[in-house]
């Protein structure tokens, strides 16, 4: 009797030590999210996310079994490219059109999209532009008797089994880029953060609001500009994969070396539309399958370190305690 209770005490001691070390080595949120991701998968369909190659601009299609969303609409001349791509994916209507902010490289083809597709709901940010493109967009919306909504931070919408939450902008900015709508999409244990052209001020304010930003895939802000993707933000999002939508030899030199270096530091594999064309991520709620090979980081991603450590630790724990 005495020996058994000593053995139980020893097992309990090692269990507590194991858990304490795990949480000491990594941030509580890292361990918690990674464990949750490993355990949770409550979806029965697939979600595909298509970062359409529109050169220097953004245009992202989200597609579930029965639903579609388009985030941004590339440049004015990109409409044939977008139209062909949507046709190749059998997309004839959009449940949602999200226009992150009114810069030309995000709303360029929006008027044509509104004219040519049936759209369920349009979301825009609270920032107008005195441009011909913006005016034609408003005109096209009016002609189809569509109105647009300005979503509140924390507002969620569903796209099939995916839940999308608007997490930014949390404040008002003079700069259109930082007024970009920011969306976090969760599908089973897969997660994405779409940031438009949000810059560091918006990134820092989102962190200060204690919003859950942690995401496996980050659509890198502002085409990889050094004015976005600050280190604290990347630490908070902790992306395993990062997608940069930019044009070959673009005038801005995007993506900038500084942001590439910071993405490398957090251990994110980087995908670039200028190098790889259209990038597609297919999610089943657990795994993400890519149509391209990302450029791997020289650093190990924290998720891989934690999972590896849990595996090693569990084996060691079994050896010491005999608990299966
Ligand atoms: Zn842009
Ligand atoms: Zn912009």
UniProtKB/TrEMBL annotation:
Coiled coil: none annotated. InterPro entries: ComA-like_MBL (IPR035681), Competence_DNA_uptake (IPR052159), Metallo-B-lactamas (IPR001279), RibonucZ/Hydroxyglut_hydro (IPR036866). The chain crosses the membrane at residues 12-29. Residues 56-248 form the Metallo-beta-lactamase domain. Keywords: Membrane, Transmembrane, Transmembrane helix. The keyword Ribonucleoprotein does not apply. It holds the Pfam family Lactamase_B. This is Competence protein ComEC. It comes from Anaeromicropila populeti.
